[in-house]
Amino acid sequence: MPEAQPKLDIVAPFWNEAASAKEFARLLSELEAEVSRRFGFETRKILIDDGGTDDGAERFAQALTGEWEIVRLSRNFGKEVAVLAGLDRAHGDFVLIMDADLQHSLEVSLQLITELVEDPDIDVVYARTNREGASWRRSQLAKLFYGLINSSQRFDIPENAGDFRVMRGPVARALTQLRDKRRFNKGLYAWAGFRHKALIYTPADRASGTSKWSRRNLVAFSLEGIASFSVVPLRILSLSGLATALAGIIYGFKIFFEVIFYGIAVPGFPSLLIAIVVLGGFNLALLGLIGEYVWVALSESKDRPVYIVRDVLSRKRDDREP
Ligand code: UDP
Ligand code: MG
């Protein structure tokens, strides 16, 4: 009996990427031909339409070849959730996640797959950008963010690594068990564990349209990462609260004895003002932070599904025209 062919599922979320549909479909069919030639893989594509408002899904349906599924979500849930929707439908021996905007090239995808197939000791190979071109301020911010988030846990979230990765089946299955609603994929990949390997690459420029990440989004995203993966800010909060209180008590004693021994009147209005403003500011900032944690807890405690599927378009290998 011939050995069953290993299966590779390619998961790609898209949101208003009609302009790149044709080109991406071509990239996929080249990729499939290549992995079939090199490793004898049988491939299937799972594209997720993340509530797009253009005719992207139709265009992809027209352009895709071979076996595919297009899962249309009922609205825009965000890329992180769209990836989960794809993983939920992937049951291959290998799963590749890539963007549909042509920033993830055929060459790098092939390299990822090759590295994983050739190294049985590794479960995940992820692509890591070399962050060339990022401004100094931006990269310092990223450093601070990862430093904060990684300082207190048993797993490390690697810098500059995104969803572009290929993993073995069990890893994909493990990820689908993590049903966080406010998803921070980088954190989830790290949390799930397994043996990872990085591949450094330079992403291509976007073929059309603009990145769907605005600056504000990035800030929100980082806060989400921190709130769902780090207790350090809360620790800092309690410690600095304690320290300030202690300083206040000591200062209070000082004043008390001064009054007793020297009977001083009331100078020091500036110091009073400074204390009020500094402490007030601290209070507001840290209350906001606690709010983030509460918000995460609240969203996770609602018993809603992570996403809703509107419908699924698909074609099996057998339906292909002769
Ligand atoms: N995307 C999505 N839902 C969203 C935002 C983006 O499915 O809410 C898709 C998008 O179409 C693309 C991929 O996720 O295929 C990466 O998005 P983008 O290119 O905006 O991110 P970047 O490459 O700048 O990280
Ligand atoms: Mg992109």
TrEMBL record:
The chain crosses the membrane at residues 242-265. CDD domains: DPM1_like_bac. Keywords: Cell membrane, Glycosyltransferase, Lipopolysaccharide biosynthesis, Membrane, Transferase, Transmembrane, Transmembrane helix. Gene3D superfamilies: Spore Coat Polysaccharide Biosynthesis Protein SpsA, Chain A (3.90.550.10). Residues 10-171 form the Glycosyltransferase 2-like domain. This is Glycosyltransferase family 2 protein. It comes from Mesorhizobium retamae.
